[in-house]
UniProtKB/TrEMBL annotation:
Biological role stated in the UniProt entry: Component of the zona pellucida, an extracellular matrix surrounding oocytes which mediates sperm binding, induction of the acrosome reaction and prevents post-fertilization polyspermy. The zona pellucida is composed of 3 to 4 glycoproteins, ZP1, ZP2, ZP3, and ZP4. ZP3 is essential for sperm binding and zona matrix formation.
Alphabetized UniProt keyword annotations: Cell membrane, Cleavage on pair of basic residues, Disulfide bond, Extracellular matrix, Glycoprotein, Membrane, Secreted, Signal, Transmembrane, Transmembrane helix
One annotated Gene Ontology cellular component of this protein: egg coat
Source organism per UniProt: Pampusana beccarii (Western bronze ground-dove)
Family: Belongs to the ZP domain family. ZPC subfamily.
Domain remark text: The ZP domain is involved in the polymerization of the ZP proteins to form the zona pellucida.
Domain ZP: 54-317
Gene: Zp3_0
Name of protein: Zona pellucida sperm-binding protein 3
UniProt main location, coarse: secreted
Membrane topology of this protein: Single-pass type I membrane protein
InterPro entries assigned to the protein according to its UniProt record, in alphabetical order: ZP-C (IPR055355), ZP-C_dom (IPR042235), ZP-N (IPR055356), ZP_chr (IPR048290), ZP_dom (IPR001507)
Amino acid sequence: VAYSPWSLPGGEAELWGHRGDVGQLRAFPQPSPWAWVDVSQLQAAAPLHPVAVQCQEAQVVVTVRRDLFGTGRLVRAVELTLGSAACLPMAQGSAGTAVTFVAGLHECGSTLRVTPDALVYSTSLNYKPVPAGNPVIIRTSPAVVPIECHYPRRANVSSNGVKPTWMPFRSTLSSEEKLPFSLHLMNDDWSAERISPVFQLGEVLRFQAGVNTENHAPLRLFVDNCVATPTPARSSSLQYAFIDFSGCLVDGQLDDASSTFISPRPRPDVLQFAVDAFKFAGGSSNLIYVTCHLKVSPADQDPDPLNKACSFNKASNLWDPVEGTQDICSCCEMRSCGFAGHSRRLHAPSRWQGGRVRREQPSELGREADVVVGPLFIHSWQDHPVKRTPPQG
């Protein structure tokens, strides 16, 4: 059973915020910080909830009734700890019926999870009984009570009477959050994501890379490199890098390709590129998986040889940047733009979701990520022969 820890006697649960010192509680209209507690392991029969949580501006206060299981048997304070770091309680109630923990939001091994709407700090109350009397037997079982403090991202939850010493939520998020990178296949006019992963040779693969910069200073997205493989295993010996050398779309140099970055960009945090469909020669598989390494730089920073998007212009026989001066692309011709080979090592994906997977590799506070699209099914016309109708007459 999960409950709001300040549920009303009649059983009607409400979300409560904290205002002022410990013990002064009042209901806030959402959005406001609120707590979630799961006491399903306790099976408590007590009329009052055995664990109460106050989510304050910079700390969490957990009050535990020693009659933890509602049986009348009081647990000992030394049997209770908070979080994976096993923090000890700060105080015990004057009547000896309650134990209180006070911990900073980042203390005692708590973890932070970022959702579209909230910052969620997770910890747990741990009960580990110490055998008393005969050490061969025990009369209670250990228990873990998960606890969460939810802080809305789109509101300031500090009250007027409190001047917190910690950074505002938006600033905290900028240093904690890994940027959410994405890579999608788009339809022919770039207006929506393409649903079908099936292509014929001769068609064009339209990719749109993006990053959500809502809680950050303006950023410009770049595609460092992209590699195609016939299997999801990144260690495949058969692979083809069609973007390389920190943003050079090298596939566009081939005689039978017109691959290019789309210019101008829709937005600084979005980059589109088109690649002529291909599949691996000599194999029976029609599948390809595309792994791209994405990164960002400040939007007001001029593009440079390590942060660029360059396409090969066959008419002029020169490399053209999406933005910036043309000299930043000169290293594409030399096949050396600051790093030998791929400028960043690509990693194998960790989980699949409907044929698309994303795995972020934190670097420079989450400003880079590997993103994978696949499998894509690439068929040749020979795979699906077309029945021709003989001419009439």
